[in-house]
Amino acid sequence: MTARVVRCGDDGDRASAWAGWAGSADWPQCPRRQARPRLAMHQDSSQLRACLDPVRGFRDEQLRRGLTPVDHARANAAAVRRQSAENRQRKVDEAVAASVAASRVATAPPDVRSSGYASTAYHPGRPGSASTADAAKENAGGDNCNPHGERSDKGSKSGEPSGSEWVKKREYGRVPAYLLDIKLRLAQQHAAKQAKKEAALIPAGMRVLPEEEREEMLGALGRTRAELERQMQALPFVIETPSARRHKAELDARFAEVEEALVLFSRRTVLVKDDE
């Protein structure tokens, strides 16, 4: 760029010279100011929201994300109930198996050798025993078809099925009715004993809350806790007035009572006052 020297006699000539120079190509071009880009943090209101309405725990964060928090106390109580039921059923099955084994031993046919009756099999005696030799002759003469001493079951078992005919029976493979009756009776006796033991532990004037009522009470307490959490989240960030402070104190007290009741009704056995 060529420097230009302006020499004028008065201010008017100097101003006209400057005006002519400003419109020429030798006039220096200054960069134009551009708007500053907007930052994302200036347009995001999450920081202000976090200050005014902070996240109250992990469950509150899950609720804000649209997720349902897991009720670990209820899941643990359900697992304990399921395990207790499995243990009771296992004990009943063991008792039934023991009773069935005892009944089989009691109804088993006696051993022929210990019954005192003479066996039809051939037992050779001593060489010098005459009675033994006569008995051997009688056995040999009475069973001519079986020279080797084998028994013939054609006459004794002619009316009983043999071989694969047992499998063709209608009752084959089924549990007998008397075993089912024994199992049912033992289960009832076991349940009665358990109920008697539990009843002995209940204090006077109290009763065990039924399972249906306990589940219903847990559901009602859960809904009440959710409503209290919603009201507590709706409170202002800064509480200054006495009425707002009293309202917050009442909500805190009710929330503590609901939490304590949830822990109480989450137990397997809940005792309540008997009004009858």
Automatic annotation (TrEMBL):
Biased composition range(s): Basic and acidic residues: 148-157
GO CC entries: cilium; cytoplasmic microtubule
Protein location: Cell projection, Cilium; Cytoplasm, Cytoskeleton
Record bears the keyword Cytoplasm: yes
Start and end residues of each Enkurin domain: 181-273
Keywords on record: Cell projection, Cytoplasm, Cytoskeleton
Start and end residues of each stretch annotated as Disordered: 100-168
Keyword Cytoplasm: yes
InterPro entries: Enkurin_dom, Enkurin_domain-protein
Pfam family, one: Enkurin
Domain of life of the organism encoding this protein: Eukaryota
Coiled-coil zones: none
PANTHER family (alphabetical): ENKURIN DOMAIN-CONTAINING PROTEIN 1, ENKURIN-RELATED
Protein known as: Enkurin domain-containing protein
